[in-house]
Amino acid sequence: MLKDLLLASLHHLLFFALIAMLVAESVLLRGRIDGAVVQRLARLDSGYGLSAGLILAVGLLRVFHGVKGYDFYLHNPWFHAKLGCFVLVGLLSILPTIRFLRWRKALAADPAFVPEAREVVAMSRIVRFELLLVAAILVFAAMMARYGGF
C-alpha cells in the first residue's frame, strides 16, 4: 500500500509540475519575446519534456505494480481516453520544442534575434490547446478512478 501511495503521489506531483511549465510557457508566449525569454522557453520546455517522460514511467509503474492491478487499467475506457490525450499532448508538443530549439540556436548565432510574430502566435495556440487537453486528462482521471469501466 505504501508503494502505491508513493507512486500515486509522485504521479500527481509530476503532473502538477508539467502543468506549471505549460502555463509558464503560455504566459511567456503572450509577452514580448527577446533573448532572455527564448532561453527561458527552451529551459521550461526541457523541464516539461522531462516531467512528461517521468509521468509516463511512473504511470507504467502504477499500472503494473499498483494495487488496482493491470486488469483495472486495460479494461477501463477512461484510462484509454486519458492515455490517448496524453499521447496527443506529446505529439503536439513536438513542434514547439523544435521551434524553441531553433530560436535558441538562432539567438546563439545572432544575439539580436527575435522570432517572427506569426511563429510566436502559432506556438502560443499550440501550448494553449495542450493545456485544454491536459484539463481533459484530469477529468478522465477522475472518471477512471470513480466509474471504472462503467
From TrEMBL:
The keyword Membrane applies. InterPro entries: DUF2214_membrane. Pfam families: DUF2214. It comes from the Bacteria. Keywords: Membrane, Transmembrane, Transmembrane helix. The keyword Transmembrane helix applies. The chain crosses the membrane at residues 6-28, 48-67, 79-98, 131-149. Signal peptide: none annotated. This is DUF2214 family protein. The lineage of its organism: Bacteria, Pseudomonadati, Pseudomonadota, Gammaproteobacteria, Lysobacterales.
